[in-house]
Amino acid sequence: MIINIDYTKRCPIYEQIVTEIEREITLGILKPNAQIPSVRTLACDLGINPNTVKKAYDILEEKGLIISKSTKGTFISDDISKIKDIKITELMTNLNDIINELLNYGLTKEEIIKKIK
Amino acid sequence: MIINIDYTKRCPIYEQIVTEIEREITLGILKPNAQIPSVRTLACDLGINPNTVKKAYDILEEKGLIISKSTKGTFISDDISKIKDIKITELMTNLNDIINELLNYGLTKEEIIKKIK
DNA sequence: ATAATTGTATTATATGTACTAATACAATTA
DNA sequence: TAATTGTATTAGTACATATAATACAATTAT
Description:
- The structure is a homodimer.
- By secondary structure, chain A is mostly helical.
- Chain A contains five helices and three strands.
């Protein structure tokens, strides 16, 4: 698993890890029950501290997206059905906000749609 | 000038002030050469420290959007022509990113446009 | 003339978040 | 037996943010 950490972002590393793994799950890159790198391995690959990876994994487990098994490893949950809808809803909300702001600036719906194409 | 500070946001207070004043300028609410509240007044109104307002004003002055005159007050710049285009370009970039992500999730261009309407 | 207001500036302090460092333990696997 | 796993703890560092408490000079209002 290769995650590009962007140190210039305000977004903390552990959150970038969460977002990327969520993304790979929803896009089907990471499949249910698949094993993901151990805390130490990923930390080493990314050149960061294991605690930082552990924090990301804790959040993902809290969300029900991964399951950590002692001495076994960490795995994608077997039920990831909800996450995709949640993600799309999030994106649609952001889309809405931006479009409303563009409308405030005087652009018309047609102009926006034209630029999307 | 009423600015709603959202303390739950990751975005710092001074940046929320910058964003809101930029917004009011581009939307024509704050007009060129208009006087805006003093550092102390705004700080008092918002219930925050004057230094925080000062920081926001410094950034806005650095951007050329406001001008601070010693012992006189702080005023909107007389030339604010560029800022609107900059803001719209920013929004269009964000719009693009979100749409690309939605396309990744399997939505079609037509579905997205339909939801916009 | 006096008091209040303006922008400006400085120093010190507090706080929260992020991240790292250095370990340690128990259980499983090679 | 050695290596790997998740888990956990404690301590420390670094940074950004925000506040507190002042101070100064110039202008404005009373």
